[in-house]
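During the second half of the funding period, the structural biology subgroup turned its attention to how the target accommodates small molecules. The most pressing case was adenosine-5'-triphosphate, which had performed well in the primary screen but for which no bound structure existed. We therefore specified the complex as follows and requested a full 3D prediction, including the ligand pose.
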Amino acid sequence: MTSPKSPAQPTTALEQEIAIEQAHVDLVYTRLAEATRSARQVASEGRSLFQSDRADFVREEDGTGLYERDVFAFQSAKRLAVLDAEHEGLVFGRLDHTTGEIRYVGRIGVRDGDYEPLVIDWRARAAEPFYRATPTNPMDVVRRRVLRCRGDRVIGVEDDLLDGESAGSELVVIGEGALMAALTRARGHTMRDIVATIQAEQDEAIRAPYQGVTTISGGPGTGKTVVALHRAAYLLYSHRRRFENGGVLVVGPSLVFMNYIERVLPSLGEDSVTLRPIGMVASDVVRLRGERVDEPVAAAAKGSLRMVQVLRRLVSDPLTSTPQELRLTLRGDVLRVGSHTLERIRRDVLAHHKLNQGREAAEAALLKALWRSKPADLDLEREEFDDQVSDTATYRMFRNAWWPTLSATQALARLGDREVMSRVADSVLSHAEQEAVSASYRQQLDWTVADGALLDELVDRLGAVPESEDDEISLFIDTDEEVNEVVTTMDRLAGPREIDPFAEAHQTYAHILVDEAQDITPMQWRMLRRRGAQASWTIVGDPAQSSWSDAEEAERALNETIGRAPHRHFRMSTNYRSPAEVFELAAQVVVDAYPQADLPTAVRSTGIEPELRVADGEGLPAAAVEVARELLRQVEGTVGVICPPSLLAEVGTALRQGGLQVDQTRVVAVTPLQSKGLEYDGVVVVSPDDVVAESPGGVRTLYVALTRPTQRLVTVDAAPGAIWRKSLG
Ligand SMILES: Nc1ncnc2c1ncn2[C@@H]1O[C@H](COP(=O)(O)OP(=O)(O)OP(=O)(O)O)[C@@H](O)[C@H]1O
């Protein structure tokens, strides 16, 4: 009998293989510990380059800097520091070649003291066969092995035999495949990287050249998001200087989604990427949270390109308090500039300047107009005249009232005034749209997701507020009731979330990655383009999951952004998330309403059919709680209760009262929009008919909800005869 303290001798083939791999993994960690020490030493000595006895090599790298590759264990050690210990191990793959050569693949590259590779970075060209080799094209690989590690311990191996003929009899092959093992694991609250199991078609998209526009499409669960994130890591690896300096922006649909994906890049050793929900892209120029969603009519109008015209008119629309004429007394003479001249000056100046930057030009034109109106016998030189006029209190007060500086938030809030709205949106927005948009600014609520793009447009049109003039607008609050209303609305909205008047112009990036692109509105594309005039793009989406009433309009807007830039497209064809049984149901539902949907093939079957229930007398919230409770028992990981917006609060309360949301670690209640891009092991879709009715995306939104589960799906209708079930035949 072995003593409990001595390590068990490997007995099975699996244990023997694990022991072999453990020995290599130990070597890698030892080398990393050395490299970390050496990195500290380099830092403390203030030297900028890693010193090695391979002087020839160091000289070569001198020219290209330290950022280039995985060549320095020193660099690797630094990268390791940002790896999340909770993620799977540093070394995750091994290739056995026909030549007998063995290569290990990992999250970063590590070399030994003789500069021989102990592990190659997954992004290096030499690692490509790990992802691309197949039995029909083995790429000189006999066996591909995925190591499962927990921290620095190897806990399992999974093999694929790619070239049976070249495999010697001593080559051990273990497991049924790493992919299936990965896919059946329970889901937590954050997305995991897939670095050990990237599939060939995904790998092609990840390693595509950086230039121009790369679009990645595919149905739900095909790995579009996770592939795009690995692509960001690949781009940083292969063109580090370009992208680390120029910046990479990743845009997703919501804050919840950003929280869900935020660990993926750090787990790949990359932490220099900016992640922003679409509602906060403009937060570099305007202070806003942008999480609230408008009701459908307002949202559709605010996203439409017609708002460009509305905002253009809004910027040139004089404030209601703007004086109609200037009248001042100079040396006993009355000087006057009438409304026509004032209007002409305003027009001329705005044709060449942004409002907040046009004040000087406007003032010059105003003084000129006054000079023209002076009596012939006024004995003053022009310069003296200007000085004396500018010194009068009347002139200064007029100037500030006539050409106030205006922040984007103040300007947008003016649309809360019905009269302003109808003036600037006349013949552009319908009455219903005007009312919906205007009403949204009369509520004392935070800016919405759609407002972000409008504020950004306004910042662009108005220009920054010059420092010394920031608060002059408050000098002329009119006592007129209507004006007061406008000012009050402005104050309400601008107060807690005012523009930072001295903010730099918007930030720009070298690469912009847009996820859930089917939901980006035309106005939001304009906002994104401002941040990527020189950028290359990765655009990821699935039109069949669009929440827009007009999926074609969203697609048109996307095509406009791509323009004539070089463009390559990748289609993901396999659904890695949904069990085949669940996806079959979801596919029937979407195809009925949206026949052009790009349907992937579900790779996994659980043998468990979705359950379609009816709440009957107990009511929807109670039924949802009951199903959630069952699902929590049946699945290991998370449960998502997806409700129409009108039921969210009620269902949330019912779950809490049922004791199911005590710590929120396993069960959440969300709307279909909030569930975009996310997944849960078990899903309850509450009242699918209401999900369809309450979203402009209709059935496409229901499709999003139905494709969230990784294990089990249950739907609950309010009563028998639900409409959505008709498509199931
Ligand atoms: N090669 C892979 N190995 C392991 N897991 C994978 C692989 N590809 C995708 N997955 C998993 O499949 C699930 C779906 O991936 P992801 O969310 O990226 O899909 P998506 O196409 O963006 O979906 P949706 O369009 O529904 O938002 C995730 O859990 C992801 O980790």
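Two results from this model are relevant to the next phase. Residues 1-5, 47-74, 82-87, 467-504 have pLDDT under 50 and may be disordered. Residues 179, 182-183, 192, 194, 197-199, 202, 218, 220-226, 542, 545, 576-577, 677, 679, 707 surround adenosine-5'-triphosphate (CB under 6 Å).
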